[in-house]
Amino acid sequence: MKNTLEYFEEIMKIPRESGKEEKIAEYLVNYAKKNNIEYSLGKYNTVFLKKNSNSNKTIILQAHSDMVCVSNDEYDFENRGIPFYKDGDYYKSKNTSLGADDGIGIAIILAILQENENIPNIEVMITTQEETTMLGASNFDYSLLNGKTLISLDGIKEADIESSSAGMCSITISKEILNEESNDIKYKLNISGLMGGHSGDDIHKDRCNAVKLGFNIISKLKCTGLYHVDIGEKDNVIPNNGVIVFSSNFDLDKINETLKGLSYNLSRDDNNLKLSVVQCNQN
């Protein structure tokens, strides 16, 4: 019988970016078949599992199979699992997110389903796209569920029990922009080394947002034109690196002199901030 961490190691080897949960759904279906557990594969690769222990109580356990995929370099999350390693009592990954949110929730559920004594009937909801659109939860077949008590295994701190959770929404804003060519010199501002983090769990830590920082900087560098902005990777990740191409009537010496004189209201987590400005010819 495998324990929770053994299942977690297996899950980390499976690509499961939000919206691309086919392989983790296949893994869960194969688990159900191997262990003679009732299952149903639903829309958007949601998975329902059920183990009847002939109890008069039924508990619903919920987790989501997708993860936030971010990396400090180019990494093929679509075809590769997480390159994890052990550091004492912790699992870590070099240069990529780990996926404990919510791979550990699934692992706990799979370990519970291996138990045979003194457990209630277990119904399992594995939802998808939790990190993006919530389409898995929105389209789950709730007629499959009979239990009246649900425990979501998607918390942050060990041994904490939460009775409520935060919500979210996505907003798309469109605006017509008047394009006017500038004859001033074009520069590329590079931002890297910020801590970033989860926009929900880490938002109270006052970590620097690369979007806010970048536009604050170019406003001090007498920006006369904006040509390219590439900052941030995911909707729910605090942006920690990026590039802005802008024009200015400052020369490069004046740009660097001004840059050195700027002060930044950084948290102690952002002490690896790196900034550079180079002249470029990008249109």
Please give a structural write-up.
- The protein is of the alpha+beta class.
- Helix content is about 20%, strand content about 25%.
- It has helices spanning about 5-10, 20-35, 100-110, 135-140, 210-220, 250-260; strands at about 40, 45-50, 60-65, 85, 90-95, 120-125, 150, 185-190, 225-230, 240-250, 275-280.
- Helix 1 (about 5-10) packs across helix 3 (about 100-110).
- The longest helix is centred in the first third of the chain and has 13 residues, at about 20-35.
- About 25% of the residues are buried.
Summarize the structure.
With 283 residues, this protein is an alpha+beta fold. It is 21% helix and 23% strand.
Features:
alpha+beta; four-stranded antiparallel β-sheet; 21% helix; 283 residues; five-stranded mixed β-sheet
Chain-wise SSE layout:
Blueprint lengths: L3 H9 L9 H13 L3 E4 L5 E5 L6 E7 L19 E4 L2 E4 L6 H13 L8 E7 L7 H4 L10 E4 L32 E8 L17 H11 L2 E9 L10 E7 L3 H10 L12 E7 L3
Parallel strand pairs: 3-6, 3-7
Antiparallel strand pairs: 1-2, 2-6, 4-5, 8-10, 8-11, 9-10
Helix pairs in contact: 1-3
